[in-house]
Amino acid sequence: MNHSRAGFRTVTRELADDDATMALGECLSRLAGPGVTIALNGNLGAGKTTLTRGFARALGVDESTVSSPTYVLHQIYPTNQGWLIHHFDVYRLEDSGQFEDLGVGEIFDSGGVCLVEWADKAADSLPPDAWKIDLEHVAGGLARRALITVPEEIARRLEAAKSSDSGRSDDHVPASE
Ligand code: ADP
Ligand code: MG
To answer: Atom 21 (ligand 1): residue with closest C-alpha?
Structure first.
């Protein structure tokens, strides 16, 4: 997967447990404003829904309403910021046309934040400036690793947020990639 996009940089986070995945979602909720689309990739069970749940909870959404919408392509959660979270799971999507039939073009421009699970299945339909998060199982353990590809300024703020969060078990982040 090629994430080398001009102006974007990949930051790595080790996520020791479920709470760490929630915390990453929360952290991203402070960095992502209206209009941002976050493309989530990773195998079944990698943590895409958990990250979305942490993101939404931090914005006042009842976390129990944030489920993996396996048979529901699109869920909407109003946030305490006055804008909406659009949560998509496109696992069962047959083609990008079906995704576009949902009116995603307008939704991406509607001033909410979109989080798209299995985003690579709809890669052609996503905004070119979407943030990307690849979640993977860490070999030999239960933990996960997140590769977070975001605009340079967001990458810097993500690193700054982490260094003030001393209780976390995340390890080093490469200076650049
Ligand atoms: P996905 O949406 O990618 O299929 P989920 O978010 O539903 O995955 O997570 C699957 C399971 O993995 C859940 O039981 C969740 O609690 C757990 N989980 C999430 N993040 C971590 C982590 N960093 N370490 C261990 N387990 C995790
Ligand atoms: Mg899911």
So the answer is: 18
